[in-house]
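Handout, section 4.2: multi-component inputs.
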Amino acid sequence: MSLLDRHLSFLEALRGAGLPVSLAEDLDAVAALTAVTWGDRALVREAYAATLVKRRSQRATFDTLFDLWFPPLVGEGHRAGSGPGDAEATGAAGEDAGGEDAAGSGQGHVRDGAAALEALRDRVVEALGAGSDEQAAALATGLAREAVGTFGSLPGAGRGMTGWSAYAALQRVAPERLVERLVAALLSDAEPEPGGEERARRTAARRLGTFTAAAEAEARRRTAEAKGAAHVARTTVRPTIDQLDFLSARRADLEELRREVHPLARRLATRLTQEHHAQRRGPLDFRRTVRASLATGGVPLETRHRPRRPHRTDLVVLCDVSGSVANFAQFTLLLVLALRDQFQNLRAFTFIDHVHEVTHHLRPQADPAEVMADLAASASYAALWGRTSYGRAFTRFAEEHADALGPRSSLLILGDARSNHGDLALGALREMAGSARHAWWLNPEHRRHWDTGDSAASAYGEVVDMVECRNLTQLSDFVHDLL
Amino acid sequence: MPATPWFSSPADAIERLGKAGYLADAATGTTAYLAGALEKPLLIEGPAGVGKTELAKAVARAAGADLVRLQCYEGLDEARALYEWNYKKQLLAIQASGHEQGWDRTQEEIFTEEFLLTRPLLSAIRREEPTVLLIDEVDKTDVEVEGLLLEVLSDFQVTIPELGTISAVRRPFVVLTSNATRELSEAVKRRCLFLHLDYPDAEREREIVTSQVPGLDDAVAAQLVAVVARLRDLELRKAPSIAESIDWARTLLALEIDDLDDAAVDATLGVVLKHVSDTQRAVRELKLRR
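Output:
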């Protein structure tokens, strides 16, 4: 594979992952690459990044794909070199992969064994338990490569069929069970001080995280050598955080999503203010018009207007907090809370089969993590028997909290409309929708799953406008249109 | 290669920026070098206070160029960004010339360089000396201003209907900064190199703090950087930036605190954290008040 082919297929993969890489960026990237030397892999990476990545959230995807197309080493690589020197091997990655790979896995089987495993684990503790973060990270990368090479191979039927699994390697090495030893190693290094253990524990967790990530990258690299980078890119590269489905978010993703809520709210608020300003044209401001006319010799060429009073709605949020959709409901509540000052009034209710008001948890200025914890803790009040029943929840809401809805309020229902085949209480919902000014339903499921199984999406959709809302992008679009 | 390259290589960029008082990491150095070598504008995004504007100033200092700055704000228009006709002077010229002249002649006279008030974008383009053009907080402007920037950013020229097109005598080094409060249009992004500046790692931050606040004790600097790194790990509404670390270092120096223990952190936390909920969280997580 020539360099140009590799470059083009790399760009193709970036496009496949959703980065807007046009021909203009392509040409820029080539120009940038001719301006730097190919000898330094870090430089090549930054040159590509400067020209192809246009948004921070795309950087993680870019890095993963770059590692696949321009791997830091080929096959078993040279143990000693993990610095810039090994970048020369990059160009040859395509052809040599098969042979070296087979040799590598053969060797791996010989070295695999309980003694080798213990030795590796000892070396991990030794390497991560000393020095600065950067040194530890460099060593962790080398050890992770070794771990995957030795313990992570999944023998296939023939040449090129061998798979590599970070999961298998990590199961054997079990970094999470090294935490205690690592903490001890870190503590023996430094003089004892208050809070030292806690700090050591955080350091240990962070460094083992580096090790795990390096092992995952290594498994991807080896698989890419055997099966082609494009294959790996299609199957293992995760979508960017704003395109990630709420329902398939892992725990680490949830934390990242939570960090995104405030910046997102700020972006939305700015956009809204600007749009409101753009369309303001209230009554004539006589004084400012006359003042402005002085600049043109007393002829009022331009009129000035008073700003219009912004219209603010009351928002009533009703969210399903049963297991599967709880995350989605919490995010939406957080986002709504972060935009608190855009609303006149905000009331929030959670339900599973019983309605519980949670407005008091949503204090402005409150800490998002704390609000999440409070909401999770209060979820038990929303259940009587613990089986989701939209019908019961709507009936109870109409009975107990009908006063929340008025001609100025908007109703927002969050949930997947899966009601365990119970009574849907369409009448109660119709009444609620009727007394509010607007009513929407946000469904975190993909549209193709609506009406499958016990989903009553279209039955409810006839009463209330149902909107698909699977990721942050869709959520922010919706909130923007709402305001 | 352009006639006068801003930097000769990424390593050169890092070194010269370092001498100008800006400690750049590899990504920043490489991108700054590329922006100079390819003569493309550089769009820098990142949280407030990580040194976006400072980078432009440092490039100007390192290359011995002058800095032309356009501060963007909501409501910024052509007349403030590009050029404006000095109509008062035009009016006087018309009155002074009397009535003998025909309209054609008058028109020719009043739409000349003499009556043109150049604003930052146009002045940056017309300068013959090396220039760094800083377009600060470009996300604060309205979408229309972005359209106005396009011609400047891609062709380095400005079209004035009465005078024709003015092209750059010498291409300036353009830096755009953004806090990402608004997505910039794809058209602007396409014309720029992109750099996301983030909080630095502990080692680099310590270097920055000690170089900016020379009198600070090394041990205190290390403690300070450790606490700041810990604060950034918490989920805060506004994580402390480099600028705030430096402010904190100056505060400690002014108060003559030579050991950053829990009590000292608690007393001066207001320098780095600007939200009540953040402060409460930090006090709880760092166990400051036992």
